[in-house]
Automatic annotation (TrEMBL):
<keyword id="KW-0472">Membrane</keyword>
<protein>
    <recommendedName>
        <fullName>Chlorophyll synthase, chloroplastic</fullName>
        <ecNumber>2.5.1.62</ecNumber>
    </recommendedName>
</protein>
<dbReference type="GO" id="GO:0031969">
    <property type="term" value="C:chloroplast membrane"/>
</dbReference>
<dbReference type="GO" id="GO:0015995">
    <property type="term" value="P:chlorophyll biosynthetic process"/>
</dbReference>
<dbReference type="Pfam" id="PF01040">
    <property type="entry name" value="UbiA"/>
</dbReference>
<dbReference type="GO" id="GO:0046408">
    <property type="term" value="F:chlorophyll synthetase activity"/>
</dbReference>
<keyword id="KW-0809">Transit peptide</keyword>
<dbReference type="InterPro" id="IPR050475">
    <property type="entry name" value="Prenyltransferase_related"/>
</dbReference>
<feature type="compositionally biased region" description="Low complexity">
    <location>
        <begin position="1"/>
        <end position="18"/>
    </location>
</feature>
<keyword id="KW-0808">Transferase</keyword>
<comment type="similarity">
    <text>Belongs to the UbiA prenyltransferase family. Chlorophyll synthase subfamily.</text>
</comment>
<feature type="transmembrane region" description="Helical">
    <location>
        <begin position="230"/>
        <end position="247"/>
    </location>
</feature>
<feature type="transmembrane region" description="Helical">
    <location>
        <begin position="203"/>
        <end position="218"/>
    </location>
</feature>
<dbReference type="InterPro" id="IPR000537">
    <property type="entry name" value="UbiA_prenyltransferase"/>
</dbReference>
<dbReference type="InterPro" id="IPR011799">
    <property type="entry name" value="ChlG"/>
</dbReference>
<feature type="transmembrane region" description="Helical">
    <location>
        <begin position="327"/>
        <end position="349"/>
    </location>
</feature>
<keyword id="KW-0149">Chlorophyll biosynthesis</keyword>
Length: 380
């Protein structure tokens, strides 16, 4: 529930001020966004790192990453690279929520429902699960992604200055309104699910509140967890794996301590997956003092930390299932881990920036299937 997760990713604090060079506002170097020409709306100022005596000779420059004129409308709606520059405000709003990040949260709810052992293919149970998925994905993951883009607008001005917020395609008030609407919608659906399930204690609502708070402190000052590669990525992994699983299981059954421990362990693998996305932002992170793992350890070491977190976690879970007498589930999980290792050597370890999308598209289906195998194992 990264709120969205509870979903549903991927701000500045007093402790980070020492790392961040002083900032000044500059007018955007890119032409005004077409939507601004049409509406006369004041563009959002582009924030860039200012030149100081200490960094005079090493001033970060915005890379040449402007989208092609024939960018994809499909990519724009999903909120991924290669997006077409859009003028429709509702398409821009959807782009900020990054729909491509919703499926892991939806899958997490499904895994939690399966692990409960009480989900039945009735109209009511299916309807409950769909509402829970909407809460976790479009609402709370959308909230998480929007607030993250809001607090990352200075980094995006360096890495991706054509994104909706730094380019001025959407105004400050419109972004803030979207954040509040998505947050309140997600919390409202959480409360509705508790009433629908007849819970004496509103556990789904409180999970939504906890996920939303985690999302906020991940992106926003003064804590801004994402400034620390270990804490920030683990928080992100927990949001995408543990929280939606807990919501789905609590909705249909009982959230037990052993499940909390098992899913928290799985969040270490989520940490590894989150690191994959840090490599493409290394330039902006380094310029603004964010200690992502690729910045802190270098790309070569960070690559191995990433794949180690993913693989060792799954092997540990397979060992746990074997120790509890779930031999076939353990073997199935092991079988799903092997292709991930192959794709790591084939793509990710060769070049984590060039092949990040190809690696994730190839390996993550096996990872999420492993989550379902684990959920089914715990339900029996």
């Amino acid at each position: 529930m990264a709120a969205a997760l509870l979903l549903a990713a991927s701000t500045s604090s007093s402790s980070s001020a020492a790392f961040r060079p002083p900032l000044r506002l500059r007018s955007p170097t890119h032409p005004p966004h077409p939507r601004l020409i049409r509406t006369g709306r004041r563009p959002f100022p582009v924030v860039r790192a200012a030149e100081t005596d200490a960094t005079k000779d090493a001033k970060p420059k915005a890379p040449e990453k402007a989208p092609a004129a024939d960018g994809s409308s499909f990519n724009q709606l999903l909120g991924i690279k290669g997006a077409k520059q859009e003028t429709d405000i509702w398409k821009i709003r959807l782009q900020l929520t990054k729909p491509v990040t919703w499926p892991p949260l939806v899958w997490g709810v499904l895994c939690g429902a399966a692990a409960s052992g009480n989900f039945h293919w009735t109209v009511e149970d299916v309807a409950k699960s769909i509402v829970c998925m909407i809460m976790s994905g479009p609402c709370l993951t959308g909230y998480t992604q929007t607030i993250n883009d809001w607090y990352d607008r200075d980094i995006d001005a360096i890495n991706e200055p054509y994104r909706p917020i730094p380019s001025g395609a959407i105004s400050e008030n419109e972004v803030i309104t979207q954040i509040w609407v998505l947050l309140l919608a997600g919390l409202g659906l959480g409360a509705l699910l508790d009433v629908w399930a007849g819970h004496d204690f509103p556990i789904v609502f409180y999970l939504a509140v906890g996920g939303s708070l985690l999302s906020y402190i991940y992106s926003a000052p003064p804590l801004k967890l994402k400034q620390n590669g270990w804490i920030g990525n683990f928080a992100l992994g927990a949001s995408y794996i543990s929280l939606p699983w807990w919501a789905g299981q609590a909705l249909f059954g009982t959230l037990t301590p052993d499940i909390v421990v098992l899913t928290t362990l799985y969040s270490i693998a989520g940490l590894g997956i989150a690191i994959v996305n840090d490599f493409k932002s290394i330039e902006g992170d380094r310029a603004l003092g964010l200690q992502s793992l690729p910045v802190a350890f270098g790309m070569e070491t960070a690559k191995w930390i990433c794949v180690g977190a993913i693989d060792i976690t799954q092997l540990s879970v397979a060992g746990y299932l074997l120790s509890t007498g779930k031999l076939y589930y353990a073997l199935a999980l092991l079988g799903l881990t092997i292709p991930q290792v192959v794709f790591q050597f084939q793509y990710f370890l060769k070049d984590p920036v060039k092949y990040d999308v190809k690696y994730q598209a190839s390996a993550q289906p096996f990872f999420v299937l492993g989550l379902l195998v684990t959920a089914l194992a715990t339900s029996h």
